[in-house]
Amino acid sequence: MGKKISIAQLVWLLLIQAFFSGCISYPQKHTFMLNADRETTARPVLTEKPLIVSRFRSAPQYESKGFVYRKGELDYESDYYNEFLALPGSMISEEVRTWLAKSGLFRFVSDAEDIEESHYHLDGSVKSIYGDYGQGTPARAVFEIRFSLSQKTNDRSAIVFQKDYREQIPVKGNSPEQLVRGWNEALFKILTAFEQDLSQSDYKW
After folding, report:
1. In CATH, which of 3.40.50.1970, 3.30.70.260, 3.40.50.720, 3.40.50.10610 is domain 32-199?
2. How much is the pTM?
3. How many angstroms separate the CA atoms of 146 and 61, rounded?
4. pLDDT score at 20
5. C-alpha dihedral, 130 to 132 to 138 to 140, nearest 10°
């Protein structure tokens, strides 16, 4: 007589078959990009000196690609399945570079670090970028950046402008798509305010 298979063994066999056939699924990872597009502006430039935009730094808790959520006063968590396509510092510095190139404030905007002539240098720090889903408060996309603009001549460097910008944009629901839309709106507002501050600065360019 053939050996009988118990119900438990049959269940295990079906589970193993389902696993190897791909029937058991895992949450799919989703990747997103930040975007703060604007129109090109025609205006008198502030200076003929080039502007170099360095890669932005990020606070340690925002250095990775995974989205960060605030769940409570001291409760934060990272999302493995929803993340940025590139590291936040790299993406944001590219968005800032593109924005300023279209602003018309500077004749030339680049990421080249080996320019020897006199130029302006923009450093940035991402102080916070997270989804705020704390209990008892509306969901918000939080974004904060510090800009530090310096003038470099030969071996000398002097800071001519430095300021922190923070935006908290209400978002509907808790979907990652809505959160990214909130971050994009926040970045747009931050860059608009930064551009306005530069254009109205009393500094002798």
Report:
1. 3.40.50.10610
2. 0.85
3. 16
4. 56
5. -10
